[in-house]
Amino acid sequence: MTRFFVAPEELRPDFLVLTGENARHAKVLRLKNGEQVLVCDGQGRECLCTVSDVSDGMISLVVHKSMESQSEARVDVSVYMAFSKGDKLEHVIQKATELGAYEIVAFPTARCVSRPDEKSLKKKLERWQKIAASAAEQSGRGRVPEVLVLDSYSKALDRASQTDKGILFYENEEAVTLQMSLSTGTWRSVSLITGPEGGLEPYEVEKAREKGIEVCTLGKRILRCETAPLCALSAVMYHAGEF
């Protein structure tokens, strides 16, 4: 079923109107009177609607039922990924959204090669959020993950430590596996932290430990910076019974 996202304040209990980009998309899809669609507020609520009128620049809908989205994960997983070169972060945003991530957070570390300035970062953030919205629509989600940018590694650790379980992945860790970490304690929210192409400095790993964040291995193989967060996210979703 075709899915559209609107601002939360645009949801109405009986009647909705799609305009702008949504109306143009509906026209491309050649929606006709009587067809059913889902309209979501991007925050986990959606309405089952029927097209009642199609005109230039506007699609009118009759609302039949409002409900909580059934496609959202039971666990809130925040993906923290250090700034990376090229379009690697874009790839992670798209795939993490499809896999059910609650949010994606980008931040700098000591070995980051990519360090976008404030002007370019604003444009990148707009693009990243659009990628998340498009991936949420394509994958049938009821919520669009927010893409956030923090200006320091310390702030990333502070924020990640506020979830039920914060986990940082380090290639030199050998004793603690992700399975071991997920099997201890009860948790409803998880933060997964991965480094840049060159990995994390040892002092950065120790700083995470000081914040109460668990340091884990993702196995004997060295994963690329765009592979590690998706691997970890998939494992958490499997452990939580989402797959």
Describe this structure in words.
This protein has 243 residues and is of the alpha/beta class. The chain has 2 domains: 3-68, Hypothetical PUA domain-like, domain 1 (Ribosomal Protein L25, Chain P, Beta Barrel); 76-239, Alpha/beta knot. It has 7 helices and 11 strands. It has helices spanning 20-28, 88-99, 118-138, 153-160, 178-182, 202-210, 228-239; strands at 3-5, 15-18, 36-40, 45-55, 58-68, 76-82, 103-107, 146-149, 165-169, 189-194, 214-216. The strands form 2 sheets. The protein has a 6-stranded parallel beta sheet, with helices on both faces. Strands 1-3-4-5-2 form a 5-stranded mixed beta sheet. Strand 9 (165-169), helix 5 (178-182) and strand 10 form a beta-alpha-beta unit. Helix 2 packs parallel to helix 3 and helix 2 runs parallel beside helix 7. The longest helix has 21 residues, at 118-138. The protein is elongated. It starts with a strand and ends with a helix. The model has no long low-confidence stretch (mean pLDDT 93).
